[in-house]
Amino acid sequence: MELNVRAQASLSLSVYDPIDKDYTPMGSAEAVKEETFEVAVLVTFQGDFNSENVEISAAEVVDGPLLIDFGYIEPDRGDDYYR
Fold first, then answer.
1. How far apart are CA 66 and CA 22, in angstroms?
2. pLDDT digits over 52-79, tens only?
């Protein structure tokens, strides 16, 4: 099956400070990616197979990509950062 997917992620970015031994926030980022790919789907049918009273009861993606690459992401520091 060919799927057209729109994936969206909200990310909180931070950096580890080895002196204070904690994480310092660096802002956040939103990422959106649209991608088309092929997947294998397992479809389960139920009903009376001797008649036309059959329906899909479940569909499961069994083989496809394990990740979506959002590409380069940088913090959105807001409009106040650049003033």
1. 31
2. 899 999 999 999 888 889 988 888 766 6
The single residue listed with the structure tokens 């389960």 is: 44
Q: What is the CA radius of gyration of the chain?
A: 22
Q: Strands (DSSP E) along 1-83, which ranges?
A: 2-17, 22-38, 40-48, 53-63
The average pLDDT across 1-14 equals 92
Question: Residue 37 and residue 3: Cα distance in Å, rounded?
Answer: 6
The residue ranges of every structural domain in the chain are 2-70
Q: How many angstroms separate the CA atoms of 13 and 1, rounded?
A: 35
